[in-house]
């Protein structure tokens, strides 16, 4: 794993260029992610969470453009090509859509190692070790399987294994448990928490689920209309929210889970 300690997104700005009147989708967003911590980016649907991550990695969709800001690793300016896969791995909401159904898991691992320029002699040991760390049993057998033969939870673990195998010290996790049933959700959140400590991963967790935030996050940034409107330690966000939007997010969570301790 490479040795970077911090990932800093500074003053990111993203515009939609679809109409003549440009619309700002991400407006001056800055955040610093340290190793061995989970920062949650929360906010309503459309508040700009995913666009912030995509702007950092230069994976914005067509019709959307980064118009300002930069990303640094330990204070050194980093290009998106240096970040993607090498320093920052990504996992997404729907693991099934991230895999090609007609290619084996081994093919997927080989392809990602090839893209990262990892010497071939290291591939097998690296992926087997990463799969074991991601809680996948009998990895040798599993590597021969095709994505359609695996459950959503196993595919999410495989996506996490590919992230670990890349050696990237930071992970962008965009709604990583949304499509999974509650038992599998809990297992994946437990796994991410373990990896934060065992692998020193710095995790940027994109979610609108305050239950996931309460379970996993150390710090929280709340976004609305493309801006960060509040940030703080997770306890502060839950117990002393300052902004009305943050209070609403916490209140909605409490109304669903009022019978339990919120945090
Ligand atoms: N391809 C696109 N072209 C133009 N605008 C887009 C495109 N995709 C998303 N947007 C707009 O960008 C804004 C931010 O979207 P983004 O996906 O970052 O929100 P989000 O906070 O991640 O929401 P969600 O929780 O629903 O994923 C929204 O107003 C959305 O409508």
UniProtKB/TrEMBL annotation:
Protein's UniProt keywords contain Iron: no
PROSITE patterns in UniProt: ABC_TRANSPORTER_1, ABC_TRANSPORTER_2
Coiled-coil ranges (or none): none
Residue ranges of every copy of the ABC transporter domain listed in the record: 9-250
CDD domains the record matches: ABC_NikE_OppD_transporters (cd03257)
Protein family (similarity comment): Belongs to the ABC transporter superfamily.
This protein's name: ATP-binding cassette domain-containing protein
